[in-house]
Structure formats: structure tokens, C-alpha cells
Amino acid sequence: MSEFTAKERPKRTGGMRTFYTIVLTQTLSIIGSRISGLAIGIWLYNETGNATPLALVAFFGMLPQVLAAGFAGVLADRWDRRYVMALSDGGQAIGTVLLMLSFLSGEFQVWHLYAIAALQSLFGAFQGPAFTSSITMLVPDKQRDRANSIIQLSEPAAGIVAPAIAGFVFALVGVVGTLAVDLLTFLIAFLVILNVHIPRPQKTQDAAEHQRSILADMTTGVRYLWQKRPLFWAVLFLTLLNFLIAGSGVLMTPYILARTGSEAQLGILLSLMNLGALAGGIVMGVWGGTRPRVHGAMIGAIALCILMMTVGLAQSFPALLVAMALVLFPNMFANASFMSIMQAKIAPDMQGRVFATISQGAMLMIPVAYLLAGPLADKVFEPAVQTGVWSVFAPFFGSEAGAGMGMQIFIYAGLALVASVAMYAMPSIRRLEATLPDFAPVAEEEPELVVEAAAV
């Protein structure tokens, strides 16, 4: 138990305004990055005619985040979180400048893109832990479900806006022009983050007990979660769920193209998927979620799995329209509810490290999912359609191209559903919020009154 004076209590005056300002500028930055990324993808595919370079860009764009997440979480707790986010935006902007110079010089080579993707990924790893842990200091607990759902809107909003803008800008000013747009959005985010106020969290006994050298501190998140055992099991569940859903998600483009044979229909379906996610975030933001929050998190996860199974069963464009429009709608409820639980239970000055651990665990499994899903589709599930035994499955998945991937998606989502139901059936998970009291560092007494921090 540690002591604080009430006069040291973090003030949230203007906190919501700061939160909305950061979300808006970071969403703008995401849109800029999506625009340049799509333009470079179009240019690279037109130049090489191969998908492998695009896959390698994705690989190099993920690996540094996996490796650096623990260190990023330590810095998010030790440094002013404004500066950590500014470092992230500034570093990614440097990468954009270097890529622009490579194109303008006429000396561009594909390996330049891999190197810069790795550089930007390294700096990008600092953004998530710093921003997510800042929410606790800016947003009152009763509004965190809405705040986290608003954050979830950034990616689908970018997924809707960026493709339309990218095609227009790329046709008008080429790759360099889209990079200039990306750079501008980074600079806006960088300048804004330096001019907002994010309160520093008070030091707690938890942090004092876990504080070591930077290298040792990088294991703090795991040790902290292990002490809060229900949270630890919840994180392991999320890692498994992420692995299975990522395995399904990486097949979406080839699966839809195989089912429909149309790039135009692929674009429509992917846009609908993002619109569904956007709608889910808006509903969550207006509603505010369930109490206890664990019900919203787990029911959202179960609904996501069921809807992903229907995507694998869809054999026609109309069926895919319905399934894709709905599949990510409940994802926002699961993500926002889970994040609000973590923000309420974890000491604010520990959140950077803990959220980095959660993120790192989830990302570690994504490359594995990618490595497994492609070969399984190409060498197992799609060839199985041509065998005699497939007649048993044909009524459910069809016998045309894409049927094997449909079954693969169905199995992945089905396994995720079993895991979700089993997790929800555990009493320790359903009672998680009652078992682990919310972190409450101060009381609302007189300004000079000394009070004790509630135990996590």
C-alpha cells in the first residue's frame, strides 16, 4: 500500500478534449499512411508483377514491433507519454522522408522499402502502449468504454477513406505525392502531441516493487499479469483468439477473389467489412457497453467467431455481402470492453509495460498464423476440393474455387468459438471485475488529507 495526498490527484480538466484531439490527429496520420501504403503497393505490383514483395513489406513492417514492444512499454511508463508518442510520429516521418528521397533520386530499390518499413515499424511500436496507457489519465472510468470504442473507429475509418483517396492521389501526383500527403499527416500529429497536456501517473507500490533495470523491466508486464491471474488467462485467450482470427483474416482477399472472380466485388466487400466495424464502434460509443464489461467482451468475441464462420459458408456474392457487412461489427464491443477492463484494473504507471506485453503476445502469433494459413490453403484445403471425400462437405462449402479456403476459415473460426465459449464458462473470468477491484489511487477527501491507494 502506498500513500498519496489528494492534492496530487491527476486532474482531468480538459482531458476529454485532449483525448479527442489526439484521436483525430492520429486517425488522420493513419489515413495518410494507408494512402501512401496503398499507392506503393499498386506501384510495386505493377513494377514486379509479384505478390512476394508485398508480403515481405508486411513482414518487415511487423517484426520490429514484435521485438520492440517490451522496450516501448517500459519507456511509456518511464517517460512523459507525450514525448513517447511524438518520438513515434517523428521517427515514422523520417522514414517517409527517406523513402521520398529514394524515389526522387531515381535510385530506388526494393530493399529500400523493406528497410524503411522496418524503421517505421520500430518507431510505430511506441505509439500503442503510450496512447493506450494515456487514456486512463485523460478519460474518467465511466466514459472509457466510449473512448476505447472511438479509438477502434480509426482503422475502419481509414480503411474506408484511404482507398478512394489513394487511387485519386496516385493517379494525379504518383507515389511521391502520396508520400508527401503521408508526411504532412505525420507532422500534424507530431506538432499536436507536443502541445497537449497528458497528466503523469502517480508512482504506486506496484510500480516500486516491479521497477528494475530497463532490461529487467521489460519482463514486468508478464510478471504483473501473472500476479493478477484472471487477467493473465484473459491475455492468453486473446493471444489464441488473435492467432485463429488472423489466420482467417489473411485469407480474405484470395478467398473472395476465388469465390467471386472480381476485383471490383472484392473492393465492395472489403469496404463493407470496414463499414461494419465502423458501425459497431459507433453503436458501442453511443451505448457505452455492458456492466460488468466482461459480458460485452466475451459475447462480442463469440459473435465475431460465429459471423466469421458464416463468411466461410457463403458461396455467392449476395451471401458474402451480408456476412462481410456484419463480421467485424461485434469486434468493437469485444476490443473496447476488454481494454476498459484492463485500464480500470491496472495501475496507471504500470499500463505502458502491461499493454506492451499484451500487444507483443498478440503480434507474436500473427506471423505464425500467416505462415501456416497460406500453405494450408494452397496444399491442403484447396486441393481437397478435387478429391472424392469432398462430396461430404460440398453441400456446405460448394465445389468451386475458394471452397477449400471457405472450409479453412470455418474451421479456424469454429476453434475460436470453442475457445471463447470455454473461456466465458470459467467462473473466474465471469467474476473478474468483482475479484479484482478497480485501481483507485486517491480518495475524494480534503486536499491535504493523506489517503491510501486501494490494492489492485
Key structural traits:
single chain, disordered C terminus, mainly alpha, 456 residues, disordered N terminus
Q: Count the strands?
A: 2
Number of domains: 1
**Shape assignment:** globular
- The name of the CATH superfamily reads MFS general substrate transporter like domains
CATH class: Mainly Alpha
Structural class: mainly alpha
Uncertain ranges = 1-13, 442-456
- Measured by DSSP, the beta-strand proportion falls in under 5%
Biggest β-sheet, characterized?
2 strands, antiparallel
Question: What can you see in these coordinates?
Answer:
77% of the residues lie in helices and 1% in strands. By secondary structure, the chain is mainly alpha-helical. The chain has one domain: Growth Hormone, Chain: A (Up-down Bundle). A two-stranded antiparallel ribbon has the order 1-2. The longest helix is centred in the middle third of the chain and has 41 residues, at 154-194.
Secondary structure blueprint with pairings:
Elements lengths: L2 E3 L9 H34 L3 H9 L2 H16 L2 H25 L4 H15 L2 H12 L5 H9 L1 H41 L10 H6 L3 H4 L2 H8 L1 H21 L2 H9 L2 H25 L5 H21 L3 H11 L3 H15 L5 H34 L9 H4 L5 H22 L2 H4 L1 H4 L14 E3 L4
Antiparallel strand pairs: 1-2
Helix pairs in contact: 1-8, 2-5, 3-5, 3-6, 3-18, 4-5, 4-6, 4-8, 6-18, 7-14, 7-17, 8-14, 11-12, 11-18, 12-18, 12-20, 13-14, 14-16, 14-17, 15-16, 15-17, 15-20, 18-20
